[in-house]
Automatic annotation (TrEMBL):
Belongs to the cytochrome P450 family. It comes from Amniculicola lignicola CBS 123094. Residues 438-452 have a biased composition (Polar residues). The keyword Heme applies. Residues 431-454 are annotated as: Disordered. This is Cytochrome P450.
Amino acid sequence: MSVVLNVLLAVVAVYFGLRKLLALTHDAREPPMVETGIPFFTPIFGMVRWRNRYYNRLRDQHRIPIYTLRFPFQKIYVINSAPLINSVQRAYKTLTFQAVSDQFAKLICDTSSTATQLSRQELENWSQGGKDVAHSPSHVIFQGLKPGKGLDDIYKTMVEALGKSVDGLDIGEEGEGKRARLLEWVREGLTGAIGEGVYGEGNPYRSREMREALWKYEGGLGALSIGILPGLLAREAVQARKYASDIFEEYFSSGSCQGGGSMTKTRYTYYSEHGYPIRDIAKLELGNGIAIFSNTIPTTFWIIFHVFSSPELLSSLRSELESHATTSQDCDGSPIYTIDVENIKRSSPLLLSTFRETLRHHASGIGVRKVMAPHYLSSPSSSSSSSSSTSSTYLLQKDAIIIMPASVQHSDPKIWGPDESTFTPTRFIPKQFDPDTTKSNPISPATTSPTEFSPLATPVSALRAFGGGTTLCPGRHFATTAILSLVAMLILQYDIIPISGKWVEPSSEKAALTAAVRGPDEDIPVEVRRRQRMEGRWVWRVTGGKGEGLGIVEEDI
Ligand code: HEM
């Protein structure tokens, strides 16, 4: 009995000890603490239980603009308020993304101490640099992604490869459809085509083994990022990383990278000029595969799902896209339809709106920053439009982590209206857009009611699928071009029908917490049939965007 009593007393003592520790290590000027039931452990249980939905639950439960979660040895400030997010983005040198991404890169890429030292030095130089330094160090490395000739050249190769891969989706016997697994097909089609544009003739992802190594590596990122016994807890990923790094090392040391696209060449030049060993350049390139493919693939899967599961939307998109095709004749008299990808991106408001709505619906990036020095955070005085704005000022302690979950912003009825949980493909169509074209169009701007929420009236940071501020995803133009081109090709050339006879939206419960776009838990077996209408040869052109980017997020606009 006395043993039980002693154990109970010890538990009570530890509990009150931990509560005291919580109180002593929390300054009243910091954001309020929540989830303190079992000090330091309730947030862990919450994350395990609710996964990506945890932050939305806490927002609904507490209704406060910012709060503190206490983990063992780590404070996390979670921000719900859009104006406070704007303030975080403005203080980009004190509240830094690069410090977190460097640490993550080290864990997942297993770079050498030389590379770690070099990136630390670069971060220091950047944070102490004056006005003329880049807004984000990684934007220097990724200059090759800036809209312009280099990117257009990547698009040309990529779009040509996408066109071939979509033609290969063809029917088997006459009148029969070809069966495929949707996610698997998207993954294969995109990796192949993007790889051609990015890596050129020597594209390592032409090999099936290399593509499989990338997926095994991606599957182990969660375990690798914990950094404990990776050889044991992430064995498959570690082996795949070694295999793929060897191949990339050969790609760079043989000079094949000189035939690659602007992104590959500028990254290689940057790293080699800064003294990174070739082995590290190879490992970082494999890590770059995660940036390139991990979110692009699930986004493509979801937009295809939403488009093909809604006959009205599919029909409206077909009308919109067909209007961009010019018709000519092949030597045997059969029709050739030519479409410029620029028209798909710039003159297809319903497609672009469906794309944004897909991102709003499925993006789950958590927008991480590290507090480099104590900082007082308050809403910008101009931000009075949101009801979640606050005039309070919060102390953020050095070394704490800030999280700004996209899903919290993307599901806020104050921003998006009472239908925030419904997939509304027209949501992002500018209200002034050509109402005359909408008469024959069941899904169209004209069907929107005058009271509908206009996305242009929302705070700048409301659509956060690509992050925001100085670290806004530099790959957004690239990803948008790849996704919209592929989806337009499918819409115009194929019918996609689920084998089960009914489209059912798969859950995303198993998606990695690190994913910026949650993938589906299950694949969807489908039948792909060539459309009866507009049968003929399709030619996809890339004339280039005169160096202009596409207005994807509100910062671009
Ligand atoms: C649908 C596809 C994509 C989504 C949803 C996405 C999303 C994101 C998000 C949420 C961030 C974090 C930004 C922040 O916290 O402020 C980010 C950063 C980044 N993304 Fe993407 N991304 C996509 C595609 C790509 C592609 C195709 C590339 C490269 C070709 C790329 C390269 C990067 C890089 C380099 C960063 C780091 C930016 C920095 O350090 O300043 N992304 N992306």
